[in-house]
Amino acid sequence: MKDSELRTKAKALALHVIAVCDEVDTRKGRGVLVNQIVRSATSIGANIHEANYAASKADFINKFHIALKECGETEYWIEMLSGSNAIGEQTAKELLQECGVIRRMLVKSITTAKENT
Fold first, then answer.
1. Mean pLDDT, rounded, of the chain
2. Which CATH superfamily is domain 5-115 in?
3. Per-domain boundaries in the chain
4. Rounded distance between C-alpha atoms, residue 96 and residue 116, angstroms
5. Residue 28: its pLDDT value, please?
6. Distance (Å, whole) CA 31 – CA 86
7. Quick one: average pLDDT of 23-27?
8. What pLDDT shows up at residue 36?
9. What whole-number distance in Å separates Cα of residue 102 and Cα of residue 9?
């Protein structure tokens, strides 16, 4: 499967998160937050990618559900980084907007996949 818009956006979000986290001062106890957000943000795209090799329609839907959960978790870690002043308000807003777009695309894809079963 060629890179879909969803896969492209998930990859862009992960790379954006990594770039932002490279600038966070982890000496102030924020290393745990950085590790968590990098894991959740990269997991979104990994699960979308893995869905391409799903054993069944149910497995495909499950992988997208996991990606959706990881998207929600990423939003939480963005809020934590912003709330602890590890990242700026504008950066947090941009990241949350990217997550929102991906979340809506995942919900739509899950709904469509369920309707087509």
1. 95
2. 23S rRNA-intervening sequence (1.20.1440.60)
3. 5-115
4. 30
5. 82
6. 10
7. 90
8. 97
9. 7
Predicted model pTM: 0.93
In the block, which residue shows the tokens 């499950």? 62
Residue 90, pLDDT > 90, answer: yes
Residue 11, both tokens: 């990859």
Given a cut of 50, whether residue 1 has pLDDT beyond it is: no
Which tokens hold the place of 83? 């709330």
Exposed e or buried b per residue across 67-77, where buried means at least 16 C-beta atoms within 10 angstroms of its C-beta: bbebbebbbeb
CB 44 within 8 A of CB 67: yes
User: Who contacts 3 (Cβ-Cβ below 8 Å, separation ≥6)?
Assistant: 11
Q: Which conformational region is residue 29 in: left (phi greater than 0), alpha (psi within -120 to 50 degrees), or beta?
A: left
Given a contact cutoff of 8 angstroms between Cβ atoms, the answer to whether 30 and 39 are in contact is no
C-alpha to C-alpha distance for 93 and 89, rounded to whole angstroms: 6
Residue 64 to residue 47: CA distance in whole angstroms: 7
Residue 99 has pLDDT above 70, yes or no: yes
